[in-house]
Amino acid sequence: MTEPFAPQFISTLEANRTAKDELTEAASRQSSRRRISVTDLVNVRQAYFRRTRSDIEIPLERRQLMWAGTGFHQLFGAAVSSEEFLEQFLEMDGITGKVDIYEDVPVELKTTGSLPADPTFRPSYIDQLGMYCAMARRLEGQLLLYQRAASGRSPLLRAYRVMFADLDLIAAEMRRRRDLLAAALETSDPSALPRCEWNCDYSHTCGCRAARPGERVVPKSGFEIREVPGLAESLLAKLGGSEPARGFRLHDLVFPRRSLLERGAQEAENGAEDEAEPPLEAMERRGFQLALHDALRYGLPGAFKGVPVGLRSLRGVVRTFRGIPTLLRTSRFTEMVERHRLPYVQSHYFDRLAFDCALSGNDRGRLVVYYEAIPGDKFMVYDVAFRHLDAILEEADRRLGLLEGGGPPEALPPCPRWMSKFCAFAPGCGCGDE
Questions:
Q1: How far apart are CA 48 and CA 187, in angstroms?
Q2: What is the DSSP code (8-state) at residue 250?
Q3: What is the mean pLDDT of residues 51-75?
Q4: CATH class for domain 31-237?
């Protein structure tokens, strides 16, 4: 069996409790809202308490779902549309909104744990799209429902066309809700605000149970909806392709054999999937990591920075936290790995951190592991000291030379054994046998 690369260069590996507490607090921090938005108008009582009860922290488990949805929206939109149509800002009568995609018609993407047989089971889905259509003065909108890959379910995407009968009626209800929320905030009295559609993190203090039921923004008779399978298929087709690889990335140094085989397949087939997971599931996973990173970055302004690095045809950015190369990774393990075993169980984490440190000229790095499947205490932060940076850089140069020269694959380090069952090139790649 091939020995992991990085452990031989680790001189010390220590858990950093101070950094862990700082990152945990940053991830839990809530941003404040000033302007009244479409999101506020969906459930105005929840919006009131979100603004006035900053002392109530949303559990990290709940925030995970929010991060996954936020990040997935960004990556999905970038894959199926272009920058000029993404996250379009709308404004009407002091109400703001940011529609996911707005090219010809407003497009709203929702993520859920399980797709319902009836897409209107959550009126808020229709209400939010209706408000965007009213602001854009478009009678038609598109609703995309994405089922997350969880609890044995496969990722799934469905698309719907929604026609609205009366945009002026929707706009009038938006103004009414705007005034209700503004008055409640001004008087510190939420008693006139209607009940929310579902329980939320403020349910113990908001008084929803005693509140009057709310009216729908879009009445049941005010819209028509039909599924458009062809639209979902066309979007999935856009997600399935990948551009031919150009240049090399830091990621290629960590899994060089797979990177070489992928590039060969792309050249032969004029573009092939470069993810072990299906496109939707892979996008959801990357989206979660992206949004978690953003939560930390905005929770600690100025603490995270990017340092450009390069080596011949390789170009990349080393992320730093307070000046130290820092790698943020999420793990699905249900138990935390003991620190003395971690460099062997998750060797690719340390390989990447070693290359980051060597290329940026630092002998110390930091690994942040977020255990998304473990309740409560999720972060572990490790300070890692490396010796012999010149030898690490020499190995990076060797791997890059083989990648640039086209192999052979067997001269490059194999991927971790566990990856072989997800790899499109197994068993021919030979990684599971080494």
A1: 11
A2: H
A3: 68
A4: alpha beta
